[in-house]
Amino acid sequence: MLTYFLPNEHVKSVFDIQPATLKNRGIKGIITDLDNTLVAWDVKDATPEVIQWFKLMKDHDIKVTIISNNNQERVEVFSEPLGTPFVFSARKPLSKAFKTVANEMGLKKEEVVVIGDQLLTDVLGGNLADLYTILVVPIVQTDGKITKFNRKIERRILNYFRRKGKISWEE
Ligand SMILES: [Mg+2]
């Protein structure tokens, strides 16, 4: 059961994820979380680095959709200037939004990766949708209220995986 919380891969930052590596593995689409994955949860707009990363993916024909549990205003204000499709109030970890987006992209499961900073929403949801999951280190260590609670559980799960030798990275 806990293996549903285990990401396929772990990287420091979304910017470590580059088109060449994805393309080599046949990846054509990215489903990414917003808060603490692309920018800090309390930062309204995309940073120049984020804008550049989206452009890079576009130039390489890799589709990107933002899926967030946050509200319409937050997700829309951030996503629209990037010209990227988005889903707000996504109810992660339910797998529905992930499946719908992969379908809308017209891609097979094997061609889509999920990127996010939380085990309990992004990784669990991506895994339940049977997609390849990449965990990133949260951009800032502070969080909204619900996330704070999730982090406590997350820490326990990560420690369990560490004890079992399933993950090797440090926090
Ligand atoms: Mg997040």
UniProtKB/TrEMBL annotation:
Keywords: Hydrolase, Magnesium, Metal-binding
CDD domains xrefs: HAD_BsYqeG-like
InterPro entries for the chain: HAD-like_hydrolase (IPR051400), HAD-like_sf (IPR036412), HAD-SF_hydro_IA (IPR006439), HAD-SF_hydro_IIIA (IPR006549), HAD_sf (IPR023214), PGPP1/Gep4 (IPR010021)
Pfam families registered for this protein in UniProt: Hydrolase_like (PF13242)
Cofactors demanded by this protein: Mg(2+)
SUPFAM superfamilies: HAD-like
NCBIfam families given in the database record: HAD-SF-IA-v1, HAD-SF-IIIA, YqeG_hyp_ppase
Protein name: YqeG family HAD IIIA-type phosphatase
Species: Oceanobacillus longus
Upper lineage: Bacteria, Bacillati, Bacillota, Bacilli, Bacillales
